[in-house]
Amino acid sequence: MTYRLAACAEMLFLELPFEERVRRIHDRGFLVEIWDWSSKDLAALAATGAEFSSMTGYLRGDLTTDEGRAELIATARESLRAAEVIDSPRLNLHGTGLGEGGLPVVPRESVDGDDWIRAADTLRELAALGEETGRTFVLENLNLAVDHPGTPFARAADTLALVRAVDRPGMRLNLDLYHAQIGEGNLVSLVTEALPWIGEIQVADVPGRCEPGTGEIRYEAVAAALRRLGYEGVIGMEAWASGDPDAALDAFAAAFGEGPGADGPGAGSGASA
């Protein structure tokens, strides 16, 4: 096995202070994902000894408007400086800034050809920033039907098209299979097509956005496909726990080939997660 497993501290062990959530996930042997870094004590998070997988790579902005592009690039620069504190290798982006409840700050029902050109140009600038600092921006697909209505460039097909057009090592996909299942399905074909441009994969089950095994997605088949394809990146569980968070982590690990009796997440890859 070559991939590594991560878990999102924003969605697990919710009764604990944030630093303790990070520590619990780290102690289980997983990499740690966080979202908005501006609300966190990054030095305290670094002091936990956790290894971080990704964090949000901007605070405001969008890919297409002049004001939004300027804000996105400026706050991406801030995010790169923040990433140094916790040594986060990947910084996550969306088609536009998301507000309360994951809704877009400025919703868009459609985009035109000029929007696509401006979005690709914006991503090229961000890719260059990532390459200058040795980090990678990742563009995440979302879903419009349940969680993020009105978000431009939300579909996996859209994010893949943009990252393909940019085609630079500083810009890759954060391929979220929970969102893709709601919006498009056909997950094994999707990961096969997207493989050269994937920077990270995120998972949760449908419906409910809880750990693998609680819904309709057969993640064991997805894991088998990723092993067959030789995927060597990170798979992150960005999911709520349906019950006990430790049991949710166990189910996630088991779905991706790390069942009871294994040495821990990432066993067999020479990795700790």
Give a structural overview:
It is globular and about 45 Å long. The protein contains 9 helices and 8 strands. The protein has an 8-stranded parallel beta barrel, surrounded by 6 helices. α3 (66-86) packs parallel to α4 (113-133). Helix content is 39%, strand content 14%. 49% of the residues are buried. Residues 259-264 and 266-273 have low confidence and may be disordered. The protein has 273 residues and is an alpha/beta fold.
Summarize the structure.
By secondary structure, the protein is an alpha/beta fold.
Write the layout of secondary structure elements.
Layout: E1 4-8, H1 18-27, E2 31-33, H2 42-47, E3 52-56, H3 66-86, E4 90-93, H4 113-133, E5 136-140, H5 156-166, E6 171-176, H6 177-183, H7 187-194, E7 198-203, H8 219-229, E8 234-237, H9 245-255
Helix pairs in contact: 3-4, 4-5, 7-8
Helix content: 25-40%
Q: Which shape, going by the Cα principal axes?
A: globular
Provide the low-confidence segments as ranges. Answer: 259-264, 266-273
User: Can you count the beta strands?
Assistant: 8
Amount of beta strand: 5-15%
The radius of gyration over CA amounts to: 17 Å
- Give me the number of helical elements: 9
Q: Could you give the distance between the termini?
A: 11 Å
**H-E string:** EHEHEHEHEHEHHEHEH
Quickly give the structural class. Answer: alpha/beta
Described by strand count, sense and barrel closure, the largest sheet is:
8 strands, parallel, barrel
Average pLDDT metric: 91
**What's the arrangement of strands in the largest beta sheet?**
1-2-3-4-5-6-7-8
